[in-house]
Amino acid sequence: MFVAEVYAAVREFVFIDGNSRREAARVFGLSRETITKMCRFSLPPGYTRSKPVEKPKLGPLLPVIAAILDADRIAMVKQRHTAKRILEPLRDEHGYAGGYTVVKDDVRICRAQGQETFVPLAHPPGHAQVDFGEAVATIGGVRRKIHFFCMDLPHSDACFVKAYPRETTEAFLDGHVAAFAFFAGVPLLILYDNTRIAVAKICGDGQRQRTRGFTELVSHYLFRDRFERAGRGNDMGKVEGLVKYARSNFMTPAPEAASFEALNADLERRYRARQEDRAGRHAETIGTRLLADRAVLRALPAVPLEPCEKRAGRVSSTALVSGRTAGADASPRAFRRRTACGQCSGRAWPTRAGLRPRERRHRPALRRAAPAPDDP
Fold first, then answer.
1. Contact 198, 169 (CB under 8 A)
2. DSSP state of 350
3. What phi and psi, each to the nearest 5 degrees, are found at residue 175?
4. Across residues 76-89, what is the average pLDDT?
5. Going by fewer Cβ within 10 Å, which terminus of the chain is more open, N or C?
6. Which of 142, 193, 191, 196 is nearest to 167 (CA)?
7. Which residues contact 15 (CB under 8 A, 6 or more apart)?
8. What residue spans of 83-146 are helical by DSSP H?
């Protein structure tokens, strides 16, 4: 076999210098067939078979091996047939008289053909992915677990991160509202996992029944939603990579802040500075590629969505209304039989704007009226 330098010299002699193939065969001392092959291929192509290898002994038994491997797809990984275990029934039941190496090579080829094939993904501008992550931080001198909302624009790798005390509907909605305001637009399509905050039920045909809060979010901002396949963890690689990146780069070592507002201000400073970096093999910065995303984002509505979970409830006879986990004061009594809007998971009291947090529960004491003085 000729080396690549000979190929390069012959191709340069023919294609660049303008000489004929007959002249190249005379100058290099090679046959015309060899010169023709060098003009067809830029590198030595190697040996190629004109027809498949014949297997006179194993050939009739190839369907038997394929049936065994197909049955192994539903078996436990540790209980699947090895090439040696496949060889035994071939000899005992089918009279196979060949060797083990031929069987082993065929099993390896069949298993490689049945494996999944992955191709690089191309993300169009204007698409987004959303997920939550967990970390540990010190807030107000107390070490605690926090949950952070992540939105990633895969086309530009621009990101938004915001921390919350808990992963609740209110945090889910507020994260979207804040992310849309940060990107100055609404993505055309957003990909989610099957979180219970957004998905109330997965129907038999694969369709998702949205929750009330998520339905209001979609109706207000008019974006299309998609969900990853159930049981598959490789559909949201971009945002899952962002969760890992934010935890290891924005929150390592464990952050310390006086409040969640201070922590989120520091996170915003960090992911804004990240827009000056180059992600992957892209020559342009994240901020430069973000312009293509912003060019196709949907315009923000005139009024942002109020990030709260709405639940219908009744005021009790003792002027109390039930919250998510505890009761709440409901003075004045004019709010009886009205729908309340709760923005916190603790106790709340109704106002014209909805429910507001209250530090502790207080029941008004029942005072007995003083007895009237005796008539003279």
1. no
2. E
3. -65, -40
4. 89
5. C
6. 196
7. 39
8. 83-94, 100-113
Cα(199)–Cα(193) distance, integer angstroms: 9
What is the DSSP code (8-state) at residue 258? S
Q: Is 309:179 a contact under the CB 8 Å cutoff?
A: no
* Across 217-237, average pLDDT: 85
pLDDT digits (tens, 9 = 90+) for 174-194: 999 999 999 999 999 999 999
Kindly report the backbone phi and psi dihedral angles of residue 273, in degrees, each rounded to the nearest multiple of 5, phi listed first: -65, -30
Give Cβ neighbours of residue 375 (< 8 Å, ≥ 6 apart). none
The pair of structure tokens assigned to 324 is 């998510």
For residues 179 and 148, what is the distance between their CA atoms, to the nearest angstrom? 12
Quote the CA–CA distance of 205 and 339 in Å, as a whole number: 35
**Which parts of the chain fold into alpha helices (H)?**
4-11, 21-28, 32-40, 62-72, 83-94, 100-113, 169-183, 212-221, 237-245, 260-273, 286-296
Look up residue 25 and give its two tokens: 């065969």
CA distances to 159, 174, 239, 273 from 278, rounded to whole Å, are: 13, 29, 17, 11
Q: Is the pLDDT of residue 288 over 70?
A: yes
Phi, psi of 136 (to 5 degrees): -120, 135
CA distance 352 to 106: 75
Residue 84 to residue 104: CA distance in whole angstroms: 8
Could you tell me if 326 and 315 are in contact, meaning their C-beta atoms sit under 8 angstroms apart?
no
Phi and psi torsions of 350, nearest 5°: -80, 145
Asked whether the predicted pLDDT for residue 289 surpasses 90, the reply is yes
Q: What DSSP string describes 28-76?
A: HT--HHHHHHHHH-SS------SSPPP-TTTGGGHHHHHHHHHHHTTS-
**pLDDT at 282 (0 to 100):** 87
**Residue 242 corresponds to which amino acid?**
L
Which residues sit opposite 116 in a β-bridge?
none
- Name the CATH architecture for the domain at 127-296: 2-Layer Sandwich (3.30)
Please tell me the predicted confidence (pLDDT) of residue 247: 95
How far is it, in rounded angstroms, from Cα 173 to Cα 216? 10
Residues 217, 207: Cα–Cα separation, whole Å: 18
364 compared with 186, residue with greater pLDDT: 186
Contacts of 143 (CB under 8 A, 6+ apart): 136, 137, 254
Contact 153, 290 (CB under 8 A): yes
Cα 84 to its chain centre, rounded Å, is: 40
